[in-house]
Specification:
The complex is a heterodimer. By secondary structure, chain A is mostly helical. Chain A has one domain (2-192). Chain A is 82% helix and 0% strand. Chain A has helices spanning 2-22, 30-58, 68-90, 95-104, 106-123, 127-133, 135-141, 144-157, 164-192. Chain A starts with a helix and ends with a helix. Chain B is α+β, with helices and mostly antiparallel strands. In chain B, strands 3, 4, 7, 8, 10 and 11 form a 6-stranded mixed β-sheet that branches. Chain B is globular. The chains are: A mainly alpha, B alpha+beta.
Chain lengths: 193, 324
Amino acid sequence: MIRLLVHIASATPALLLVAGWYFKRLGVDPEKTLIWESGIWAFNLLLLVLLIPVVARWANWPKLRRYRRAIGLWSFGYASAHLALFLAFLLGWDLVRLGEELKERPYVLFGFGAWMLLSAMAITSNRFAIKLLRKKWGTLHKFVYLAVALAGIHYVLMIRSDYAWPATYAAIAGILIIARWIRGKKQKTVRTN
Amino acid sequence: MAQVTDQSTYNRRKFIAGALGLTALGTFATLRYRGRMSARAAQAPTDESSIVESVPSAENYALTSSNGGRLTTKYAATHYNNAYEFGWNKSDPSERSGNFNMRPWSVTIDGLCHRPGTFDVDDLMGMPFNQLEERVYDFRCVEAWSMVIPYNGRPLRDILAAVEPMGSAHYVAFTSVLRPSEMPGQASPFSSLEWPYVEALTIEEATHPLSFATFGVYGDRQLPQNGMPFRVTLPWKYGFKSAKFIVRITLLEEQPPATWNLTNPREYGWYSNVYPDIDHPRWSQATERRIWGDGEISRIATRPYNGYGDEVAHLYPGINHQYR
């Protein structure tokens, strides 16, 4: 039941955007609206993924962790749509230009890097991969913190003048990364003791 | 003890459920609000014809446009604007300019000229608004989108000639209005721009026949979102070079500062001519997305000097990369 709600909630922005596109309700530059909104929702869901273990521990509610994979995959879905829309609308599927853009534009590089990390985690998000990779799986999936850092830089690099929103996102991402790092250190100390 | 823990756990869970509910509600409300806003956008009339009796330019500059006479819809050109004075969203200039007073409006012209003075904007026009010349220019934003817009005005050089510039006047500086109480973007603590906005041209650029003193677009002068009551339009340069809400024009010997160039000289050159080979450090300028309105967008190659090279290239002798 909760799982179904998680899927419905995660799909809602996408459905609204598709409907908005179809009924021409996405403003004067609907292409830009789609690119921005898909990126923002990839980021929102990624932050939610990082927030889940914190909340689960705080509320002593371990069941929450069950929905992490689903939300992570939705985030990957939005990020993939974001990349595809960028390729379609800004590069016209010119993959040679994608190579140039990756070389010359840090914002593309950071965004693409975050997407690659999410891809690696999405591919290995099944039981088979968990069994196969064992301990390495955990290490690989810690890269979600690097992915959110790259996404934050990617966002900040897009801004011309007003940094209020990207600064907010970067701050939330930063707090979650630092919180995880402190906890990781504590755990290590406990183990060595 | 166990009971106490359970109670606090329960409270925390209740709190989370509440927070989730509020977030969902907030998201829903935001999306609904945005949906309404853009619904209004879609329903607005798409007026493509000009109300003004247009006076064709003798040199017929409209022909330098590559679009076969097609215009961007008035709705798109007046609801998708960069005027950071009103906010950084493209919809802010049309939505947050309601308190902006456009009359009376006077412009001071001073510096190295023989007849400096302060002029009412109606006097600057030199004729009734509906008799001003109409010019269709390609407008190219540094963000790699463009529109085709009919501007109402007169050559800037006619206004400059009236104040009789001295021989030592090598530059023309524009100062935009400073009114934080009427322009919410100027009051924002998060803006990285210094106000008032300043821009500048060389005297050769300012007196070029393409440089257009602009008092309206689409035959409409009540459009603060487009920089009215008085702006300049320089179609071979990125949009930010075309100063809006001008209250002062100063003739100078030394090169004056320009707002975006001051803010980030690596990204925004002082000249900022449209040139497909000179990229903005963060994005390519090789192509642009031409916005037509009603959701229609075409991706086209950007032309040197935005297609006005035949008219203006001679202003930039030598290597054009020096004039970035």
